[in-house]
Amino acid sequence: MSSEVLLSIEDLEIRFPTSQGEVAVVTDVSLEIRAGEFFGLIGETGAGKSMTAWAAMGLVQPPGRITKGQVRFAGRDLLTADRESLRRIRGNELAVIVQNARAALNPMLPIGTQIAYAYRAHHSVGKDESMQRAVDALRSVRIPDPETRAGTYPHELSGGMAQRALIALAMVNRPRLLIADEPTTGLDVTIQAEILDLMAELVAAQGSSIWIITHDLGVIANHTERAAVMFAGQIVESGTTRDLFTEPRHPYTRELIESVTRERPRNERGAEPPDLANRPLGCQFAYRCDLVEEGCRQAMPALDVIAPAHLLRCPVVSREISPDEAVTGT
Amino acid sequence: MMGNIATGPETVVQAVGVRKEFPRHRGSGTIVAVNDVTLIAQRGESLGIVGESGSGKTTLARCLVRLIEPTSGRILIHGDDVTTASGSPLRRLRRKFQMVFQDPYDSLDPRWNVERSVEEPLRLLTEMRPAERRKRVQDLLGLVRLGGNLGKRYPHQLSGGQQQRAGIARALATNPSLIVLDEPTSALDALVRIEILELLNELRRELQLTYIYISHDIGSVLKVCDRIAVMYLGRIVELGSAHEVVSNPMHPYTMALMSSILESRVDARPIRNRLEGEIPSAERIPSGCVLHTRCPVAIADCSTTEQQLIEVGPGHQVACSRVTRDDAIVWPSGWVRNRR
Amino acid sequence: MSAGIALEPPLTRSKRGRSDVLGFGLLLVIVFLAVVGPLFTSLDPNTADPTSALLPPSGEHWLGTNSYGGDVFTRLVAAARLDLFIGSTSVAIAFVIATPIGAIVGYSRRWWAGAVMRVMDFIQAFPVFIVAMALVAVRGPSTFNVIFVIALLNVPIFVRLVRSEVLALRERPFIEAARSVGNSDVGLVLHHVLPNSLGSSIAQASINIGWALLLTAGLSFVGAGIRPPTAEWGTMIAEGAPNMITGQWWISLFPGLALGLAVLGFALAGDSLRAMLDVRSRTV
Prior knowledge:
- The complex is a heterotrimer.
- Helices cover 33% and strands 24% of the residues of chain A.
- Chain A has helices at residues 49-56, 83-89, 101-104, 111-120, 127-140, 146-149, 159-171, 189-206, 217-223, 241-246, 251-260, 315-321; strands at residues 5-18, 21-34, 38-42, 65-73, 76-77, 94-97, 177-181, 209-214, 226-231, 234-240, 304-307, 310-312.
- In chain A, the strands form 2 sheets. Chain A has an 8-stranded mixed sheet with strand order 6-7-8-3-9-10-12-11, with helices on both faces. In chain A, strands 2-1-4-5 form a 4-stranded antiparallel sheet.
- In chain A, a hairpin with a 2-residue loop joins β4 and β5.
- By secondary structure, chain B is of the alpha/beta class.
- Chain B is built from 10 helices and 12 strands.
- Chain B has an 8-stranded mixed sheet, with helices on both faces. A 4-stranded antiparallel sheet of chain B has the order 2-1-4-5.
- In chain B, β7 (178-182), α6 and β8 form a beta-alpha-beta unit.
- The relative contact order of chain B is 0.14.
- Chain C is an all-alpha fold.
- Chain C has a single domain (11-43, 89-282), classed as MetI-like (MetI-like fold).
- The relative contact order of chain C is 0.16.
- The chains are: A alpha/beta, B alpha/beta, C mainly alpha.
- Chains in contact: A-B, A-C, B-C.
C-alpha cells in the first residue's frame, strides 16, 4: 500500500435549510484515502456519511451548500473545479456505486449499452469496441452469459445482478477510487457476501482504492483496512480497522462495537439520535455519554492524535491514554 | 412431521401443511409462495423464521395472523381453527394474535397520534369502557417506555425506535398470546435495533408471550429466538434450536446461509460456502428438492423427489435425504460445515 | 447516476407564501363582497330606471349603470352571491356523491368496480359545454338545473381522484395493520382510507369551484343558463357586450373582472390547499 494520498477532505462543512432553520449535516470533517487502500466510513442514519461522499464528488447542490472546507482528488481541487474538469474525473478516475442499483441504472437502456456509453464518454472509440468493453466488464463481475445479458434492461435483473451491473459500469473505466455507498444493504445475505468479495477482488486487481460507506459493522470488519466513525455529522474516531474493533476508544464507537459483539451491557441513557437542528454547545455525544464531564459541554472537542494514524474526538479518553500530553491534531 | 414437540394445552400456534398460492401475473396457473409448511410453537417460546427473498417467510407470517387466507392447510391458535374464519368470528379471535410490522413509520396511521393508534385494538376487539381503555393505553406505553407526552405525538414526530415501540404497544394491547413479528428491526439503526430486541426479550419474559420472528438477519434472530426454521422457496429446509442451526447447520442451504454472515470481528476467517447461481424466481420453482439447481452435492434423485423434514437429532430436523441417510457425501473443497 | 440532492420541494417557501396570500386574499374579497356588499347599496338589483341608463362610474353609481338603469355595483354583488352559491353547491354535491363511490371502487377488487369506471368514462367523454347546454335545454333554464348539470359533470372527476388516492393507500402497511387490529372493511375505509385520501380532493374541489363559475357564466352568457334580468356575472357580461362598441365599457368589464379574479382566487387557493394538506411535501 503506497502512502500517496488519493483523496483528501479537510474541514468540510455542509449545511441544508430545513423547516427549523439551516442545519449543519456535516461539520469539521477531515479524512484521507490513500492509493490502493480500503477505507470505511461508519455511521448510523443521519450521521452525514453519504453527504460527505457526495461532497467528494462535487455533487452537493442547492439548497445544500458547502460552507467550509476543501476536497482534493489526486491533487486537484474538486470544489472549485469547472464542469468540464469534473466531468472528466467522474465516471473515469472516480466512480460511485449506490444502494439501490436498479434505481441507479437508466431504466430505458439495456445494461450493455449504458456501460458502453460510459466507456465512450472517456475514450474516443467506436460503438463496437465500447460494446466489447462492456461485455468484458459484465464478464468481470461474473454475470453469466454476458454477451446476451448485455441486452437486458435493469428491471429484468434481480437485485444482486443489478448491483453487479452497476459495479461493471463503475469499473469499466478503471477508476482510481471507487466510492461504494451502502452497496449491499437490502440485498440477500448470500448475495451480499458475494458482491463484497467481488468488489474487493476487482479493486485489488486494478490497484484502485475503495471507500465503503455503511452502517454494517460486519462489512467494515471484513473488508476494510482503515475506517472512520461518524456521529452527528462529525468524525469522532478514525484509525485502522483492527484498532477500532479491538480497542475502540470513543464512547460512541465503543457502544457500537461492543453492543454488537455482546461484550458490554448497554448504555442506560438510550440510543436516541442527535437533533441536528438544535446542536448543543460542546461535544455532540455528551447527551448520552456515560463518561461525560463538565468540560465536555462547554467547548467542542477537537480531534486528537492518540497514536500514529489514530484520531479521537474525546478529551476525557485522550487524557486517560496520555495524561501528560494532549496533542491536538487535525 | 411435528418432531418431538407434542401438542398440548401449552401449544399456542400450530400451522399444519399450510400452502399459499397466488395467481400468476402473466398467463394461467399459480405461484406457490408457501408450500406445505408445518410448525408449532409453545407458550413463551420464540421461533425464528429465516430466509432470503422468495423464501415465503413474509407470506407465511401473514397467513398466521390471517391477513391472508391460506390456499390449503390449517392454522390453529390455542386450538381454535382460524384458517377460514372471516368477518366477526375472525375479529373475535384476533384478540389472541397480533403483528408487529417492518416499517415502523408506515405501519401507523399518519393522522393518528400514538395513543389513538394503540387504543384502536381495544376499541374494536374488547368491551372495555373508554376510561378503562385510556388507562390500559397508558400502562402499555409505560411498558414499552414511551412515557411522558410521547403518546400525544404523531408518527412523523417520533424517531424510528419510538415508532416501533408504539407498534409493539399496539400489538400488546389486547393481551395476545402470540405475536408475529415481520422484520421488526430491519429498518432501524444498529444501536436502536439492540434496544428494541432487548425490549422484545423483556416483554416475552414478563408476559409469557410466544413469538414468531421473521427475519433475514441471523444476528437478531440469535438474540431473540430459541428455535429457528430456515425457509427456501416456500419450504422449511431445516428446523432446530437457534444455536444448533447456526453453529452446526446440516442442510446445504443453511450451511451457505450461515457462512455468509459477516461477523463484526476483524479476525474472523471468511468461510464462503457458495451455492451456484441465484435464487430462482418464484415463477420457476425447481422440481423435487427446491435447492437442487444450486446445491453442490445434488444427485439425480434430488431433481425428482420432494424432500421432507426428517429428524437428525433432538428437535433438529433437516429436509435433505442425502444428509439424513448419511450418504457418503463429497463436499466441495473449502466447504466448511461447522462454524467454530 | 443521480445528480444531486434536494431537500426542499421546487417552490421555495417565500414563493409559496406569495401565492397563498394572493389566492386566499382574492377569495376573501369576493366572499366579503357577496356577503356584505348588499349593505352598501340600497338599490334592488332587478329594478329598472331608464332615466339613469348608461351612466359611467360615479359617486352615486360606483360602477356605473347598465342599459336599463340597473346599478352595476348592486348587480355585481348580487351576482356574486348567486354565482358563489351555484359554484360551491354544485361542487359540494358532486363531492359528497363521488367520494364514497370513489372510495368503494378504489378499495374493492370486484369486477363491478371496473364497470363503474366505464360509466364515469362515458360521462367524461362528452364535451362539457355541449352536455351542459343540452341538459339545460332539456330541463329548462333555472338555478337548480344549472347546479344539477355542473354537479353531474364533476362527479366523474372526483370519483377518479378519490379512487386513485385509495388505490395507493390500500397497499400501505398501516392499512394492513388496521386490519390486523380488527377493523372491518367498512371501518378501514371510513376511519383510515378516506381521511388520508381527502387532501387532494379538497384541493381539487377549490379549483373545480372556479371552473363551475366559468361554466355557469358561460352558459348564462349564451342564454342557456341563468336568464336575465337575474343578476349573474355571465348575464351581466352578455348585457354589456353590445355596449362595448358604443363606449360603455363598465357594464361588461366589472363583472368580467370579478369573474376572472374569483376563478383565479379559487385556483390559487386550491393549489395552496394541496401543498398544505399533502403530508409528503412536508419538509423535515
